[in-house]
Amino acid sequence: MGNPHVLAIPYPAQGHVLGLMEISQCLAKQHGIKITFVNTESVHKMVVNSNSDVLNNNSSNIRLVSIQDMNGIEDIYLSMPGKVKELIQQINASHTHDNITCVLADSLLSWAMEIAIDNQIKPASFVSFSATSSVLISTVPKLIQDGIISYDGTPRKEQMVEVSPSMPAMNTSHFVWARNRGFWEEQKLFFEYALRNNTSVELADFVICNSSYELEPETFNTNPKIHPIAPLVGSNRSGNFLPEDLSCLKWLDGQPPNSVIYVAFGGHTTFDQTQFEQFALGLQLSNRPFLWVIRPDVADKLNIGGFQNRVGSRGLIISWAPQQKVLKHPSIAYFFTHCGWNSVLEAITNGVPLLCWPFSDDHFLIEHYICNVWKVGLGFNREDGEIITKEDVISKSEELLSDGKYKANTLDLKEKLLKSIKKGGSCYNNFMAFVVWLKA
Protein backbone atom coordinates (compact mmCIF):
# COMPACT_ATOMS: atom_id res chain seq x y z
CA MET A 1 0.00 0.00 0.00
CA GLY A 2 1.02 3.67 -0.21
CA ASN A 3 2.22 5.79 2.67
CA PRO A 4 -0.14 5.48 5.67
CA HIS A 5 -2.28 8.45 6.66
CA VAL A 6 -3.23 8.42 10.35
CA LEU A 7 -6.08 10.46 11.79
CA ALA A 8 -5.03 11.06 15.42
CA ILE A 9 -7.87 11.94 17.80
CA PRO A 10 -6.98 12.80 21.42
CA TYR A 11 -9.44 13.25 24.26
CA PRO A 12 -9.51 17.09 24.54
CA ALA A 13 -7.47 17.48 27.72
CA GLN A 14 -3.83 18.45 28.28
CA GLY A 15 -2.34 15.10 29.30
CA HIS A 16 -4.16 13.21 26.56
CA VAL A 17 -3.16 15.64 23.80
CA LEU A 18 0.47 15.66 24.96
CA GLY A 19 0.90 11.89 24.79
CA LEU A 20 -0.78 11.41 21.42
CA MET A 21 1.15 14.33 19.94
CA GLU A 22 4.41 12.74 21.08
CA ILE A 23 3.48 9.51 19.28
CA SER A 24 2.44 11.47 16.20
CA GLN A 25 5.74 13.35 16.14
CA CYS A 26 7.64 10.07 16.30
CA LEU A 27 5.58 8.46 13.54
CA ALA A 28 5.97 11.53 11.32
CA LYS A 29 9.64 12.40 11.89
CA GLN A 30 11.18 8.97 12.27
CA HIS A 31 8.96 6.89 9.99
CA GLY A 32 7.61 9.35 7.42
CA ILE A 33 3.97 8.61 8.22
CA LYS A 34 1.47 11.36 7.47
CA ILE A 35 -0.59 12.52 10.44
CA THR A 36 -3.76 14.58 10.58
CA PHE A 37 -4.13 15.62 14.22
CA VAL A 38 -7.64 16.74 15.13
CA ASN A 39 -8.47 18.89 18.15
CA THR A 40 -11.49 20.90 19.16
CA GLU A 41 -11.22 24.57 18.16
CA SER A 42 -10.17 25.94 21.55
CA VAL A 43 -7.60 23.20 22.14
CA HIS A 44 -6.30 23.62 18.57
CA LYS A 45 -5.72 27.35 19.14
CA MET A 46 -3.86 26.76 22.41
CA VAL A 47 -1.62 24.07 20.86
CA VAL A 48 -0.80 26.20 17.81
CA ASN A 49 -0.18 29.38 19.80
CA SER A 50 2.00 27.65 22.40
CA ASN A 51 4.04 25.40 20.12
CA SER A 52 4.39 27.21 16.79
CA ASP A 53 8.21 27.09 16.65
CA VAL A 54 8.43 23.38 17.43
CA LEU A 55 5.61 22.46 15.06
CA ASN A 56 7.02 24.54 12.18
CA ASN A 57 10.52 23.12 12.56
CA ASN A 58 9.82 19.46 13.24
CA SER A 59 6.41 18.44 11.99
CA SER A 60 6.30 18.65 8.19
CA ASN A 61 4.26 15.42 8.06
CA ILE A 62 1.78 16.58 10.70
CA ARG A 63 -1.28 18.63 9.79
CA LEU A 64 -3.24 20.16 12.65
CA VAL A 65 -6.97 20.56 12.06
CA SER A 66 -9.89 21.53 14.26
CA ILE A 67 -13.54 20.70 14.72
CA GLN A 68 -16.23 22.55 16.64
CA ASP A 69 -15.75 22.97 20.39
CA MET A 70 -17.53 20.54 22.70
CA ASN A 71 -19.48 21.68 25.77
CA GLY A 72 -18.43 19.21 28.44
CA ILE A 73 -18.08 15.45 28.65
CA GLU A 74 -21.53 14.64 27.26
CA ASP A 75 -20.86 16.59 24.07
CA ILE A 76 -17.58 14.71 23.55
CA TYR A 77 -19.53 11.47 23.30
CA LEU A 78 -22.73 12.71 21.61
CA SER A 79 -21.66 15.52 19.24
CA MET A 80 -17.97 14.96 18.53
CA PRO A 81 -18.45 11.68 16.56
CA GLY A 82 -20.52 13.45 13.91
CA LYS A 83 -17.86 16.14 13.43
CA VAL A 84 -15.14 13.51 13.04
CA LYS A 85 -17.22 11.59 10.48
CA GLU A 86 -17.60 14.79 8.46
CA LEU A 87 -13.84 15.40 8.62
CA ILE A 88 -13.04 11.89 7.35
CA GLN A 89 -15.52 12.32 4.50
CA GLN A 90 -13.96 15.66 3.53
CA ILE A 91 -10.44 14.23 3.50
CA ASN A 92 -11.38 11.09 1.61
CA ALA A 93 -13.41 13.05 -0.94
CA SER A 94 -10.52 15.36 -1.84
CA HIS A 95 -9.30 12.99 -4.61
CA THR A 96 -5.66 13.32 -3.61
CA HIS A 97 -5.05 9.56 -3.22
CA ASP A 98 -4.27 10.41 0.39
CA ASN A 99 -7.23 8.82 2.18
CA ILE A 100 -7.21 8.10 5.90
CA THR A 101 -5.81 4.59 6.41
CA CYS A 102 -5.89 4.43 10.21
CA VAL A 103 -7.80 6.09 13.03
CA LEU A 104 -5.60 6.31 16.16
CA ALA A 105 -7.80 7.57 18.99
CA ASP A 106 -7.68 7.95 22.74
CA SER A 107 -9.15 4.83 24.35
CA LEU A 108 -11.79 6.97 26.09
CA LEU A 109 -13.26 7.72 22.65
CA SER A 110 -14.71 4.31 21.82
CA TRP A 111 -16.93 5.82 19.13
CA ALA A 112 -13.79 6.52 17.07
CA MET A 113 -13.18 2.78 16.70
CA GLU A 114 -16.77 2.31 15.49
CA ILE A 115 -16.33 5.08 12.92
CA ALA A 116 -13.09 3.52 11.67
CA ILE A 117 -14.66 0.08 11.28
CA ASP A 118 -17.76 1.49 9.55
CA ASN A 119 -15.47 3.24 7.03
CA GLN A 120 -13.18 0.20 6.55
CA ILE A 121 -10.27 2.07 8.13
CA LYS A 122 -7.77 0.42 10.47
CA PRO A 123 -8.80 1.04 14.12
CA ALA A 124 -6.05 1.66 16.71
CA SER A 125 -6.52 2.73 20.32
CA PHE A 126 -4.15 4.74 22.51
CA VAL A 127 -4.36 4.28 26.29
CA SER A 128 -2.99 7.66 27.39
CA PHE A 129 -3.06 6.80 31.11
CA SER A 130 -1.79 3.83 33.09
CA ALA A 131 -2.64 0.31 31.95
CA THR A 132 -3.85 -0.37 35.49
CA SER A 133 -6.54 2.31 35.13
CA SER A 134 -7.65 0.79 31.83
CA VAL A 135 -7.84 -2.74 33.23
CA LEU A 136 -9.61 -1.42 36.33
CA ILE A 137 -12.33 0.15 34.17
CA SER A 138 -12.70 -3.15 32.30
CA THR A 139 -13.52 -4.94 35.58
CA VAL A 140 -16.42 -2.62 36.49
CA PRO A 141 -19.16 -5.18 35.61
CA LYS A 142 -17.55 -7.73 37.93
CA LEU A 143 -17.01 -5.12 40.66
CA ILE A 144 -20.75 -4.35 40.49
CA GLN A 145 -21.65 -8.05 40.45
CA ASP A 146 -19.46 -8.70 43.50
CA GLY A 147 -21.09 -5.82 45.40
CA ILE A 148 -17.85 -3.81 45.65
CA ILE A 149 -19.27 -0.76 43.85
CA SER A 150 -22.79 0.43 43.09
CA TYR A 151 -24.19 0.98 39.59
CA ASP A 152 -23.01 4.61 39.56
CA GLY A 153 -19.46 3.57 40.51
CA THR A 154 -19.60 4.53 44.20
CA PRO A 155 -17.64 2.10 46.41
CA ARG A 156 -20.02 0.46 48.89
CA LYS A 157 -17.26 0.64 51.50
CA GLU A 158 -13.58 1.43 51.64
CA GLN A 159 -11.59 -1.79 51.33
CA MET A 160 -8.59 -3.36 49.63
CA VAL A 161 -9.47 -5.46 46.58
CA GLU A 162 -7.60 -7.52 44.03
CA VAL A 163 -8.74 -6.56 40.55
CA SER A 164 -6.67 -9.46 39.28
CA PRO A 165 -4.76 -12.10 41.27
CA SER A 166 -1.53 -10.98 39.60
CA MET A 167 -1.97 -7.24 40.21
CA PRO A 168 -1.21 -5.31 43.43
CA ALA A 169 -4.25 -4.91 45.68
CA MET A 170 -5.79 -1.44 45.61
CA ASN A 171 -8.05 0.62 47.84
CA THR A 172 -11.57 1.17 46.52
CA SER A 173 -11.21 4.85 47.43
CA HIS A 174 -8.44 5.05 44.81
CA PHE A 175 -10.69 3.96 41.95
CA VAL A 176 -10.36 6.42 39.07
CA TRP A 177 -14.03 7.43 39.06
CA ALA A 178 -14.31 7.72 42.87
CA ARG A 179 -12.20 10.89 43.25
CA ASN A 180 -14.54 13.62 42.08
CA ARG A 181 -13.44 16.54 44.31
CA GLY A 182 -16.84 18.19 44.20
CA PHE A 183 -17.68 17.55 40.53
CA TRP A 184 -20.12 14.71 41.17
CA GLU A 185 -22.44 15.20 38.18
CA GLU A 186 -19.51 15.41 35.80
CA GLN A 187 -17.88 12.44 37.48
CA LYS A 188 -21.00 10.31 37.02
CA LEU A 189 -20.91 11.10 33.31
CA PHE A 190 -17.21 10.27 33.18
CA PHE A 191 -17.91 6.92 34.85
CA GLU A 192 -20.68 6.14 32.40
CA TYR A 193 -18.65 6.97 29.31
CA ALA A 194 -15.32 5.66 30.58
CA LEU A 195 -16.88 2.20 30.57
CA ARG A 196 -16.85 2.49 26.80
CA ASN A 197 -13.07 2.27 27.11
CA ASN A 198 -13.71 -1.48 27.25
CA THR A 199 -15.37 -1.36 23.84
CA SER A 200 -12.53 0.74 22.48
CA VAL A 201 -9.91 -1.82 23.47
CA GLU A 202 -12.04 -4.70 22.21
CA LEU A 203 -12.75 -3.14 18.79
CA ALA A 204 -9.23 -1.88 18.10
CA ASP A 205 -6.95 -4.00 15.95
CA PHE A 206 -3.93 -2.54 17.73
CA VAL A 207 -3.78 -1.05 21.26
CA ILE A 208 -0.77 0.97 22.43
CA CYS A 209 -0.30 2.32 25.93
CA ASN A 210 1.67 5.15 27.49
CA SER A 211 3.35 2.79 29.95
CA SER A 212 5.99 0.10 30.28
CA TYR A 213 6.31 -3.54 31.36
CA GLU A 214 8.77 -2.30 33.98
CA LEU A 215 6.06 -0.15 35.61
CA GLU A 216 3.03 -2.45 35.45
CA PRO A 217 4.12 -6.01 34.57
CA GLU A 218 1.18 -7.73 36.23
CA THR A 219 -1.33 -5.48 34.47
CA PHE A 220 0.00 -6.27 31.01
CA ASN A 221 -0.14 -9.96 31.85
CA THR A 222 -3.82 -9.47 32.72
CA ASN A 223 -4.57 -7.94 29.32
CA PRO A 224 -1.85 -8.84 26.79
CA LYS A 225 -3.71 -7.03 23.99
CA ILE A 226 -2.41 -3.73 25.42
CA HIS A 227 1.13 -3.00 24.16
CA PRO A 228 3.25 -0.56 26.20
CA ILE A 229 5.44 1.88 24.24
CA ALA A 230 6.52 4.37 26.93
CA PRO A 231 8.28 6.37 28.17
CA LEU A 232 7.69 8.97 25.48
CA VAL A 233 10.67 11.22 26.10
CA GLY A 234 10.90 13.71 23.26
CA SER A 235 12.94 16.78 24.18
CA ASN A 236 10.61 19.22 22.38
CA ARG A 237 7.07 18.62 23.55
CA SER A 238 4.54 20.17 21.18
CA GLY A 239 1.16 19.49 22.76
CA ASN A 240 1.24 22.04 25.57
CA PHE A 241 -1.75 24.32 26.07
CA LEU A 242 0.39 27.15 27.52
CA PRO A 243 3.68 28.68 26.31
CA GLU A 244 6.74 27.35 28.15
CA ASP A 245 8.78 29.84 30.16
CA LEU A 246 12.34 28.98 29.16
CA SER A 247 13.83 31.66 31.44
CA CYS A 248 13.56 29.23 34.35
CA LEU A 249 16.38 27.14 32.84
CA LYS A 250 18.85 30.00 33.29
CA TRP A 251 17.66 30.40 36.89
CA LEU A 252 18.20 26.66 37.46
CA ASP A 253 21.74 26.98 36.10
CA GLY A 254 22.51 29.24 39.07
CA GLN A 255 21.37 26.73 41.70
CA PRO A 256 23.52 24.05 43.39
CA PRO A 257 23.18 20.45 42.18
CA ASN A 258 20.34 18.43 43.72
CA SER A 259 18.98 21.42 45.64
CA VAL A 260 15.78 22.67 43.94
CA ILE A 261 12.25 21.59 44.79
CA TYR A 262 10.21 21.54 41.58
CA VAL A 263 6.49 22.14 42.21
CA ALA A 264 3.87 21.65 39.49
CA PHE A 265 0.29 20.46 39.82
CA GLY A 266 -0.71 19.98 36.19
CA GLY A 267 -3.21 21.42 33.79
CA HIS A 268 -6.46 21.32 35.78
CA THR A 269 -5.63 20.99 39.49
CA THR A 270 -6.93 23.82 41.68
CA PHE A 271 -6.50 24.78 45.33
CA ASP A 272 -7.85 27.50 47.57
CA GLN A 273 -6.04 30.33 49.35
CA THR A 274 -5.64 28.34 52.58
CA GLN A 275 -3.94 25.39 50.92
CA PHE A 276 -1.80 27.72 48.81
CA GLU A 277 -0.58 29.54 51.91
CA GLN A 278 0.33 26.27 53.65
CA PHE A 279 2.25 25.02 50.61
CA ALA A 280 3.93 28.41 50.30
CA LEU A 281 4.93 28.56 53.97
CA GLY A 282 6.25 25.01 53.81
CA LEU A 283 8.46 25.88 50.86
CA GLN A 284 9.53 29.16 52.45
CA LEU A 285 10.51 27.52 55.75
CA SER A 286 12.29 24.61 54.05
CA ASN A 287 15.12 27.04 53.24
CA ARG A 288 15.64 25.36 49.87
CA PRO A 289 15.40 26.93 46.42
CA PHE A 290 12.22 26.04 44.57
CA LEU A 291 10.65 26.43 41.14
CA TRP A 292 6.83 26.58 41.32
CA VAL A 293 4.54 26.40 38.30
CA ILE A 294 1.24 28.20 38.93
CA ARG A 295 -1.07 28.51 35.93
CA PRO A 296 -2.39 32.03 35.18
CA ASP A 297 -6.00 31.01 35.90
CA VAL A 298 -4.93 29.80 39.35
CA ALA A 299 -2.56 32.70 40.05
CA ASP A 300 -5.30 35.25 39.37
CA LYS A 301 -7.27 33.90 42.35
CA LEU A 302 -4.37 33.82 44.82
CA ASN A 303 -2.21 36.37 46.62
CA ILE A 304 1.09 35.37 45.06
CA GLY A 305 2.86 38.72 45.02
CA GLY A 306 3.43 38.93 48.77
CA PHE A 307 4.82 35.42 48.89
CA GLN A 308 7.23 36.08 46.00
CA ASN A 309 8.53 39.16 47.81
CA ARG A 310 9.17 37.18 51.01
CA VAL A 311 11.22 34.43 49.38
CA GLY A 312 13.07 36.69 46.96
CA SER A 313 15.46 35.05 44.52
CA ARG A 314 15.36 31.70 46.39
CA GLY A 315 12.03 30.91 44.77
CA LEU A 316 10.84 31.33 41.20
CA ILE A 317 7.16 31.23 40.17
CA ILE A 318 6.30 30.76 36.50
CA SER A 319 3.08 30.06 34.58
CA TRP A 320 4.26 26.96 32.64
CA ALA A 321 7.54 25.06 32.48
CA PRO A 322 9.48 23.14 29.85
CA GLN A 323 9.03 20.17 32.15
CA GLN A 324 11.25 17.64 30.39
CA LYS A 325 14.15 20.10 30.44
CA VAL A 326 13.47 21.08 34.04
CA LEU A 327 13.40 17.49 35.31
CA LYS A 328 16.59 16.72 33.41
CA HIS A 329 18.40 19.63 35.06
CA PRO A 330 21.03 18.55 37.66
CA SER A 331 19.84 21.14 40.18
CA ILE A 332 16.46 19.40 40.71
CA ALA A 333 16.20 17.49 44.03
CA TYR A 334 12.62 16.21 43.84
CA PHE A 335 9.26 16.86 42.19
CA PHE A 336 6.23 17.95 44.29
CA THR A 337 3.43 16.72 42.01
CA HIS A 338 -0.31 16.09 41.66
CA CYS A 339 0.58 12.59 40.35
CA GLY A 340 -0.58 13.09 36.78
CA TRP A 341 0.56 10.12 34.69
CA ASN A 342 2.66 12.13 32.20
CA SER A 343 4.40 14.06 34.97
CA VAL A 344 5.22 10.89 36.91
CA LEU A 345 6.67 9.18 33.82
CA GLU A 346 8.78 12.24 33.05
CA ALA A 347 10.09 12.39 36.63
CA ILE A 348 11.05 8.70 36.80
CA THR A 349 12.63 8.84 33.34
CA ASN A 350 14.90 11.59 34.65
CA GLY A 351 15.63 9.91 37.98
CA VAL A 352 13.71 12.46 40.09
CA PRO A 353 11.91 11.27 43.29
CA LEU A 354 8.35 12.42 43.96
CA LEU A 355 6.38 14.07 46.74
CA CYS A 356 2.69 13.35 46.11
CA TRP A 357 -0.37 15.57 46.41
CA PRO A 358 -3.01 13.68 44.36
CA PHE A 359 -6.01 15.74 43.36
CA SER A 360 -8.56 13.70 41.40
CA ASP A 361 -9.20 10.96 38.83
CA ASP A 362 -6.34 8.41 38.67
CA HIS A 363 -3.94 10.49 40.79
CA PHE A 364 -4.62 8.50 43.97
CA LEU A 365 -4.05 5.18 42.23
CA ILE A 366 -0.77 6.50 40.81
CA GLU A 367 0.26 7.72 44.27
CA HIS A 368 -0.26 4.15 45.51
CA TYR A 369 2.19 2.86 42.90
CA ILE A 370 4.71 5.64 43.62
CA CYS A 371 4.75 5.07 47.38
CA ASN A 372 3.94 1.38 47.84
CA VAL A 373 4.88 -0.46 44.65
CA TRP A 374 7.79 1.39 43.03
CA LYS A 375 8.83 3.17 46.26
CA VAL A 376 10.16 6.22 44.44
CA GLY A 377 8.44 8.85 46.58
CA LEU A 378 6.29 9.79 49.56
CA GLY A 379 2.72 10.87 50.16
CA PHE A 380 0.90 12.61 52.99
CA ASN A 381 -1.15 10.82 55.64
CA ARG A 382 -4.45 12.69 55.52
CA GLU A 383 -8.17 12.27 55.20
CA ASP A 384 -9.82 13.18 51.92
CA GLY A 385 -10.04 16.96 51.57
CA GLU A 386 -7.87 17.60 54.64
CA ILE A 387 -5.46 20.53 54.39
CA ILE A 388 -1.76 19.68 54.12
CA THR A 389 0.01 21.95 56.58
CA LYS A 390 3.37 23.70 56.29
CA GLU A 391 4.72 21.27 58.90
CA ASP A 392 3.64 18.34 56.70
CA VAL A 393 5.47 19.82 53.71
CA ILE A 394 8.67 20.43 55.68
CA SER A 395 8.77 17.01 57.36
CA LYS A 396 8.01 15.02 54.18
CA SER A 397 10.50 17.08 52.23
CA GLU A 398 13.26 16.35 54.71
CA GLU A 399 12.37 12.66 54.85
CA LEU A 400 12.43 12.37 51.06
CA LEU A 401 15.79 14.11 50.79
CA SER A 402 17.52 12.49 53.76
CA ASP A 403 16.70 8.87 52.90
CA GLY A 404 18.74 7.91 49.87
CA LYS A 405 16.61 4.86 49.03
CA TYR A 406 14.03 6.96 47.15
CA LYS A 407 16.64 8.44 44.82
CA ALA A 408 18.30 5.05 44.39
CA ASN A 409 14.98 3.35 43.57
CA THR A 410 14.13 6.08 41.07
CA LEU A 411 17.49 5.79 39.31
CA ASP A 412 17.12 2.02 39.14
CA LEU A 413 13.66 2.30 37.58
CA LYS A 414 14.92 5.01 35.22
CA GLU A 415 17.56 2.69 33.79
CA LYS A 416 15.01 -0.06 33.22
CA LEU A 417 12.61 2.33 31.46
CA LEU A 418 15.28 3.79 29.19
CA LYS A 419 16.54 0.33 28.31
CA SER A 420 13.02 -0.68 27.23
CA ILE A 421 12.84 2.06 24.56
CA LYS A 422 16.30 1.41 23.11
CA LYS A 423 16.66 -0.76 20.02
CA GLY A 424 15.77 -4.31 20.99
CA GLY A 425 13.93 -3.24 24.16
CA SER A 426 10.36 -4.37 24.83
CA CYS A 427 8.70 -0.99 24.28
CA TYR A 428 10.87 -0.27 21.23
CA ASN A 429 9.79 -3.59 19.72
CA ASN A 430 6.13 -2.87 20.44
CA PHE A 431 6.32 0.52 18.76
CA MET A 432 8.09 -0.89 15.71
CA ALA A 433 5.43 -3.62 15.47
CA PHE A 434 2.83 -0.83 15.45
CA VAL A 435 4.68 0.95 12.62
CA VAL A 436 4.84 -2.28 10.60
CA TRP A 437 1.10 -2.80 11.16
CA LEU A 438 0.36 0.77 9.99
CA LYS A 439 2.35 0.22 6.80
CA ALA A 440 1.00 -3.26 5.99
TrEMBL record:
Enumerate the UniProt keywords alphabetically.
Glycosyltransferase, Transferase
CDD domains, per database record = GT1_Gtf-like
Work out whether the entry's keyword set contains Glycosyltransferase: yes
Give the signal peptide as a residue range, or say none if absent: none
Q: Which domain of life is it from?
A: Eukaryota
A Pfam cross-reference name: UDPGT
The molecular function terms of the Gene Ontology recorded here are: quercetin 3-O-glucosyltransferase activity; quercetin 7-O-glucosyltransferase activity
Q: Its family?
A: Belongs to the UDP-glycosyltransferase family.
Name of the protein this chain belongs to: Glycosyltransferase
